[in-house]
Amino acid sequence: MQSVAVSENFEQSPLKRTFKSKVLARYPQNVEWNPFDQDAVNMLCMPKGLSFRTQADQREPQFHSFIITREDGSRTYGFVHTFYEEVTSPQICSAMHTLYQMHNAESTPSSSSSSSSSMDSLASSLDEADSPAASASSSRRAGGYDSSRDTLYVSKALCLIAPMPFMHACRRFLSQLHRAVTADTAPPLPLESYVHNILYEVPLPAPGRSLKFHGVYEPIVCQRPGLAELQLADFPLAEAFTLLGAENLVQVFTCTLLEMQILLYSHDYQRLMTVAEGITTLLFPFQWQHVYVPILPASLLHFLDAPVPYLMGLQSKEGTDRSKLELPQEANLCFVDIDNHYIELPEDFPQFPNKTELIQELSEVLLSFGLSANTGAPPRTRTSPSSAPGSTPSTPGRERKTVALRQLEDDGRNGNLAVEELAVLELLQGNPTLERLQALTKRTGVTVARVDALRAGVKTQSTEGQGGRTAAEEEELRNAKLNVQLREVFASRFTTMFADYEAFVIQSAPDLESWLTNREQMHNFDKASFLSDQPEPYLPFLSHFIETQMFATFIDNKIMSQWEEKEPLLRVFDTRIDKARLYNVRAPSHRSSSYQRCSILKESAQAIEQRLMKIDHTAIHPHLLDMKIGQGKYAQGFFPKLQADVLNAGPTNNKWSHRTATAQRRKDRHRQQTEHLALDNDLKEQVEGCLVLQNSMAFWEWDKASPPPIKPPKKSASASCLKYMQEARSLGKNLRQPKLSDLSPAVIAQTNWKFVEGLLKECRMKTKRMLVEKMGREAVELGHGEPNITGLEENTLIASLCDLLERIWSHGLQVKQGKSALWSHLLHYQAREEKLEQQQAESPVSQVPERRKSDGFLAMPTLRVSLIQDMRHIQSMSEIKTDVGRARAWIRLSLEKKLLSQHLKQLLSRQALTKKLYKRYAFLRCEEEKEQFLFHLLSLNAVDYFCFTSVFTTIMIPYRVVIIPIKKLSNAMTTSNPWVCVSGELGDSGIMQIPKNVLEMTFDCQNLGKLTTVQLGHDNAGLLAKWLVDCVMVRNEITGHTYRFPCGRWLGKGVDDGSLERVLIGELVVPSGEEDCRTPPLQRSPSQTRRISITSLSGRGYKPTSAQIQEAIGESVNNIIKHFHKPEKERGSLTVLLCGENSLVAALEQFFHHGFKSARLFQKTVFVWDFVEKAVAYMESADQMGDLQETAEPLGMTCQSLCHYVNSINSTPRNIGKDGKFQLLVCLGARDRLLPQWLPLLVECPLISRMYEDTALLRHRSTVSALIAVLETIHDFPITLEASLVKGIDL
Fold first, then answer.
1. 709 pLDDT above the threshold of 50
2. Which in 57, 245, 363, 989 has the greatest CB count within 10 A?
3. CB–CB of 37/741 below 8 Å?
4. Is 631 exposed, middle or buried (0-12, 13-18, 19+ CB in 10 A)?
5. How far apart are CA 549 and CA 733, in angstroms?
6. Mean pLDDT in residue range 953-965
7. Cβ-based neighbour number of residue 112 at 10 Å
8. For residue 545, what pLDDT is reported?
9. CB 1010 within 8 A of CB 1133
10. DSSP 8-class letter at 1258
């Protein structure tokens, strides 16, 4: 035994240290086309290395499995049986004895080894897991190891490597092989016969068939699902559910679907593997596309630093608390503590659709097999360990009656295993009182659900058991049935959720070549339309999910299936969708979020049961091989080195060799390849099985035949396709699997370099996607795909950008501080800058108001760009409780202010700080990549985001208001008391008095959202009670968004239209120098020219032609209709469309002004409102005289409604002026669908000839009819008016 003591931590007692292991032998020696990866197998067979024991310790054999994923994504499974053998070498015994003496001399009795919590201490993970802290170990601690008194044992492993996860079969074969060596009597044949048999004479079962082969003592059965069934998964899902509980498992499953980083944590390798494989098999029809290492060997812990999604398993050391575990990044991490049944979830992640009903259905399946689904502590989010957003699922009603049973069961932490339940049942059956109770409950019709379920479970087991099946086979059958039923429940969720996915796949390329070439630039899936078709509750989850790599790959496979053979999972999925369509025309259930249960649970379990009950094939029995006499002897209790020569070659042409079996197997294998495996796994099936005696052995399973020909091009992927699959399909796919073998610094550097490249590419793709989506219509005209982006989708994209930045900032960290690497860097920066600031007094906004120029934008004092200031805004938000939350809010704020790239550049310009915080290979220290990354982020400045304002709706925000008078025409000041009220999409500020003679004020108010209107007015007091205002400017002091509210009119009695208050409509101001690179502005608000031209202020104002007026009306109505066709969350302000520039009111004002005799010589100006008032007065008088009695009843009603509305508007306490009143009448008429009925009344009124010229549009019959028809089109929509418009109107 050539193991050298290479031990990391010498303060451990020698027996607790771990030593380097090595592969002792492997059979066959090699397979040309499938090289044996010695380092990987060595590492995964004994992830902790070699360990020693004495007779005082527990030495039970252990079983675990592992998986090796190759670069191309193909997988190989390994199954390992680890046991302890007595050490016979006197040198090793005396070496251990000496180590103990040295250790005892060094360690003073008082010192206790403290475990450091650094990442390195994980690397020394020990084999303590298997030895409970029994009294035996304490006696050993006193005595240690003494070669004269103790027997020394060392670990050894047998490993079988296979192409498919036949976990149960391999486990039973290995344990029988080990039993043969330890048994008192030798087995009937030499060990070589059994190994040779499984390597060369046991074929893979054909799809949909079962196979029986013979181990050393008893037969072993394995089965393989048919082509239309879910693929083979032999790891017991029941165990995963029992360990975590249904609720937690569904949450981890959701994190996996959303491609977060998932870290499993347990002391038991097999548990890590069971949970990892369990979760990934539930993903059907999707496949995990990123790093997948269910067992992470101690020497590879630096992989936790990978800035990509991963699913890894980490072995916990006994006594190591979760809090001691320092992980490089946790912002997006789902931490699964398997042994303690609890999980920690990332912040704010969406729930799986119909989660509660799904958990309910899973619980019922588990219950039908006598298992409880309610294990597991409630999940914890990162906010605080105590708060549990989704606590343990409530017990289904019918289980509540079983209180007595509940108390008999263990608490949730111990995972109520079936064994305990059997014990409970025995207790119940043997207890006469309980038996009587049961009889009584039966008579009264009460059922005791749990007992019945248990009894049924046990009954089926006992009846089937009589069919000559062993208990192990029973257990296996039960597991297989439960496995497939649980998987079917998940599969049916996807079948209903994605039943119509095909309709949204965009098939744009004429052939495979051109598709592969343009893959990166193309839209393959119409995301916006797909989402708009889904039920509302599903959207948060689906909008995230369709952005993942696994979904993209699924769609890629779908598109490629027109030229290639369908990927197996996709084929099964499509078949199911077609079948579902036949049975259920999906129209009625479409868009409904009601839960559809899985309907094929019974038949799926039956298929498996039939295969296992009726065996299709039996393999050749093990037989004597051509071995020399005396070969194959071994000492009892010691696993020997086998005869390599007989195991290196397949069966020769002797009487034992059945060529048929091999041929059949080759056929199966070829078929399997074409039908059951992924594109890039052509050679996956010719596989390994190696008995690795580690100290270890390995068996390779293979065929004597040469490897099958690669499929002809029609069937298989072309070379470019394979290359594409490996490179382009995923960002960082080449990182999907760390190379387990070579760990030289050069290789680690190379891996990190790949990470850097991957991150940069991902940044390029994400920013491009955000730009294209956001630029909307403009981008589509340039040929960039989807026309609109939903707010939901925008939010998803921004969330994934936040996640990318977190991953970039956590790559290559020297020391981790806090959960968010980005925020911790910002805090370091802030601390340094504030030191510098103390030396120079700081002023956030220059307090001295500059001399105002008449130009609007100059009147607002400039807002200083300050990274620190933005951080302080975020720090003062009490709503955000965590660092991750603060970092995300800061990113959103910077994005909204178009400063993200600039801020990050400033942050990284402090190179001394970056060097202190990051290792040399970190992304942030690669100069060229960093520059490109900042450049990609800079491109986001081309579009307007409101991703901060729209998300943090409850925070207090300081606003600054500046009122700009028109100096030339008016006293800048007024003696009256002015007031202002600012309204936005989320509310209004209420009326605020403006201090006298002050034109600028600031106020704090809960977030108003995007600003829509400002009401400005005064109380008409004093001598100079007239005020000519050019515009009002309002700025959000956190985001810097500035809005301009044009006015251009007088406020005062006896001037203009006599208005003392005006409602002004806002528009967002573009900071200077930015106009050339941005999207077209939002709907603009009324400009000064329009306002002045309508009034008498300048009679020389611009007069539109009748054609322009009609076009303007059509355009304004169109805009309102478009507004209602957008998803509700993205509609923006209706007020702007009703009252802003180019709005309905503006267009109708022009219509009514056309041919209006407004200016009279030596008389007051006449307004349109005067005409309306006179018309109403005429109607009322006519009504009293009885002229209207003979008109049709509906007309009379319309007439009354018009009079009522006009009088209500006139009697309002507000002084809104005549134009304001006309605006209000139009808005109310549009809201209450009365405008088209009022128009004829105004046209019929005899006064019209006095007030309008003959050419006026209003006197043109056909034009008026056309106008009525246009206005009727907005009747289908519910128009709601902003409070600022209708304040004080009593109808």
1. no
2. 245
3. yes
4. middle
5. 10
6. 89
7. 7
8. 92
9. yes
10. G
